[in-house]
Amino acid sequence: MAGLEHITWLLTLVSFFGVLSVLATAMVDWWARWRGWRQASLRQAVGRLLRSPAEQASGQTGSAWGEAVLAHPRVSVGGQLPDSLAPEVFAEVTWQVLAKAPQTQDMQQAPVWQVLTLGEPEAQGQSSAPMMALPDDQRQRQQARLAGWFSQAMQLETQRYRARTRRFLFGLGFVLSMVANVNALRVADGLQADPASAQALEAQLGSEAMTALARQQAESAALMGDGLASGPSAAPAADALQALAVLVPQRQLWGWRQGLPEGWRMWLWQVMGCLLTALAVAQGAEFWFDLLKRMTSLKARAGA
Q1: What pLDDT, on the 0 to 100 scale, is given for residue 53?
Q2: Residue 33: what pLDDT?
Q3: Please, which residues have CB within 8 angstroms of residue 167's CB and are 6 or more apart in sequence?
Q4: Of the residues 33, 188, 196, 293, which has the maximum number of CB atoms within 10 A of its CB?
Q5: What angle do CA 130, 131, 136 make, to 5 degrees?
């Protein structure tokens, strides 16, 4: 049974950090929308892809073709950029922009033109004007190559965006943990000293709140897959935190009601605990959800 108690304790910690991650992610998502991070990331990615050799040589970060693509009615609605762009839409709009662009040697040396005419030696030296007269099957092949190229590029851009948000999450998590005194070491020690509270928390967080959060994450992922704007709501996480405060008020797992640390060793312990909290928050809710599922299965096997 001791092993089962340890698993329950770990499950409670995982659930706790999952709730904190969702709250922090919701705050960062709101900030990103207000600041237009995703739109800026999309603009930079399209600009890098469609820069001509002359624009690259001059050190420009944007691209005239890229701006033409982003200004297209299929992309911008009312002059507002979306959070994401479907590869098929990018391919179709980019093909139209290039087909209408004047022929230059600079265009034929651009990376996008090399992708467009890949495997078509007869097309690599042609002007852009005859593109409108291409057979449908050839046009579809060209657009399919553009879509695949854009999809690969956006995977790298997504990695950059996630790295940026993780850094922001870490900073936000550290500030909030210091302000609210959410010390990971203190929380772990308090839950280990009170197995009954740990079991109550694990039952609360492991069922209603975490189920709602997991469903919410799945819906958000589905919307993003369709190229639609989405963002997690903080409501289920807030409900879970409220349940935490009701279930274990006597443990005082967070807050400054016990006063400030005394001595440099206690302050060092405080800072280390808050750094661990920030590191946990920066992993993101998906990491904790996956770990929670694995540990729930482990507990089920251990109790069988």
Answers
A1: 83
A2: 81
A3: 282
A4: 188
A5: 125
% the chain with pLDDT above 90: 11
pTM of the model: 0.69
DSSP 223-273: HHHTT------SHHHHHHHHHHHHH-GGG--SSSTT----SHHHHHHHHHH
- β-pair partners for 77: 80
Q: What number is the average pLDDT over the span 123-127?
A: 51
Q: How far is CA 21 from each of CA 93, 112, 205, 243, rounded to the nearest angstrom? A: 38, 39, 14, 16
Of 233, 197, 221, nearest to 15 by C-alpha is 197
| Rounded Cα gap, residues 196 and 213, in angstroms | 24
103 Rama class: left (phi>0) / alpha (psi -120 to 50) / beta:
beta
**Residue 126: which residues within 8 A CB-CB, separation 6 or more?**
none
pLDDT at residue 190, as a whole number: 72
**CA angle centred on 30, ends 26 and 36, rounded to 5°:** 140
Q: Which residue in 5, 10, 26 sits closest to 284, CA to CA?
A: 26
> Which residue from 122, 123, 121, 114 is spatially nearest to 146, judged by alpha carbons?
114
CA-based radius of gyration for the chain = 26
The structure tokens listed for 5 are 């108690």
d(CA 70, CA 121): 29
Query: What does the pLDDT look like over 85-101, one tens digit per residue?
Result: 899 999 999 999 988 88
Nearest to 68 by CA among 38, 47, 87: 47
Q: List, in order, residues 6 or more apart from 89 with CB less than 8 Å away.
A: 74, 75, 227
